[in-house]
């Protein structure tokens, strides 16, 4: 009797375990290939993701239904797409329809998808990608509120209550190492920094009160990378032109027309051509060619 009970228990356990294994193995097949469907079969994204054309929210479920798969496949040939993990944590206000109406295509944002041979990991555009695109197309807003709701917490982990007082440490280092390959400029444009570091704010560690007269020493010594904040060369040109300021070595004898001589600028250029390029990269033809082009 005891043996019969034990045998029955084993049969139940094996049957139950087999059912679970069968359920798990058929529930989610990660081998779905976008490459085969898009490149080889030359299908359109809308053939499977038809709902994307009218989607107004980033939390809409845009994965294909089983009915969409059965338009091409026989029943039982493919697993039910309902088993695939849902994408419901993207920007709630993101509108596929608006982007499509503005002339974008699916591959404008999902350019890598066509080469995928596995379903996961999903490859969605990140904020850097979106900001780059919005800045190139000036009609697109770069205001955070255009994509994010007021109640969303967008602050990185480093932005603690005391971050305003210690953010300089991160700004001086490589912020991308701390914020998953994102630097400060993803969210903060130059004007954001200038609003705080200029004007009536006199308590400045990076640029003290007399920095306008001493900044050339740091620029020449390359102790700090000026281009981190002043990425546009025109920032320097405008100030030097308005104040009629030339580098201290641009005095009489800096350049001449004596054959094979050229003046002191030849020696300096040979030792530090980067210093010349920092000002004359864009007007080299105008400045250098009259002499060097002869």
What does this structure look like?
- It is a single chain.
- With 294 residues, the protein is mainly alpha-helical.
- Among the domains are: 34-123, no CATH class; 246-292, no CATH class.
- The chain has helices spanning 2-27, 34-40, 45-48, 66-70, 96-101, 106-109, 127-136, 163-172, 190-197, 211-221, 234-242, 264-271, 273-280, 284-292.
- α12 (264-271) packs across α13 (273-280).
- The longest helix has 26 residues, at 2-27.
- The chain is elongated, with a radius of gyration of 31 Å.
What separation lies between the terminal Cα atoms?
111 Å
- Strand count, sense and closure of the main sheet? none
Which H/E pattern describes the elements?
A: HHHHHHHHHHHHHH
Name the structural class: mainly alpha
* Basic shape: elongated
Gyration radius, in Å: 31 Å
Mean pLDDT: 77
Q: Helical element count?
A: 14
Number of strands: 0
Q: Summarize the amount of helix as a percent range.
A: 40-55%
**Poorly predicted spans:** 7-27
Strand content: under 5%
What is this entry, summarized?
The chain is mainly alpha-helical. It has 14 helices and no strands.
Features:
single chain; 294 residues; mainly alpha; 0% strand
Ordered list of secondary-structure elements with their pairings:
Blueprint: H1 2-27, H2 34-40, H3 45-48, H4 66-70, H5 96-101, H6 106-109, H7 127-136, H8 163-172, H9 190-197, H10 211-221, H11 234-242, H12 264-271, H13 273-280, H14 284-292
Helix pairs in contact: 12-13
């Amino acid at each position: 009797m005891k043996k019969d009970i034990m045998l029955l228990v084993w049969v139940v356990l094996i049957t139950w375990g087999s059912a679970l294994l069968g359920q798990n193995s058929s529930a989610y097949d990660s081998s779905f290939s976008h490459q085969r469907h898009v490149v080889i079969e030359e299908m359109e994204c809308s053939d499977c993701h038809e709902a994307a054309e009218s989607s107004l929210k980033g939390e809409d479920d845009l994965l294909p239904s089983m009915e969409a798969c059965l338009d091409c496949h026989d029943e039982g040939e493919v697993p039910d797409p309902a088993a695939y993990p849902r994408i419901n944590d993207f920007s709630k206000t993101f509108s596929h329809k608006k982007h499509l109406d503005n002339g974008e295509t699916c591959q404008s944002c999902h350019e890598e998808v066509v080469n995928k041979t596995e379903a996961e990991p999903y490859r969605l555009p990140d904020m850097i990608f979106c900001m780059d695109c919005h800045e190139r197309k000036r009609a697109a807003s770069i205001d955070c509120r255009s994509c994010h709701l007021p109640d969303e917490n967008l602050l990185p982990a480093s932005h603690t209550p005391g971050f305003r007082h210690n953010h300089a440490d991160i700004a001086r280092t490589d912020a991308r190492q701390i914020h998953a390959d994102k630097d400060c400029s993803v969210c903060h444009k130059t004007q954001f920094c200038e609003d705080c570091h200029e004007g009536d704010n006199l308590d400045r560690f990076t640029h003290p009160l007399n920095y306008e007269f001493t900044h050339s020493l740091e620029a020449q010594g390359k102790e700090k990378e000026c281009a981190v904040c002043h990425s546009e060369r025109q920032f320097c040109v405008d100030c030097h032109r308005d104040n009629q300021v030339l580098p201290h070595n641009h005095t009489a004898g800096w350049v001449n027309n004596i054959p094979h001589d050229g003046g002191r600028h030849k020696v300096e250029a040979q030792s530090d051509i980067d210093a010349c390029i920092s000002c004359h990269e864009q007007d080299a033809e105008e400045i250098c060619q009259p002499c060097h082009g002869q």
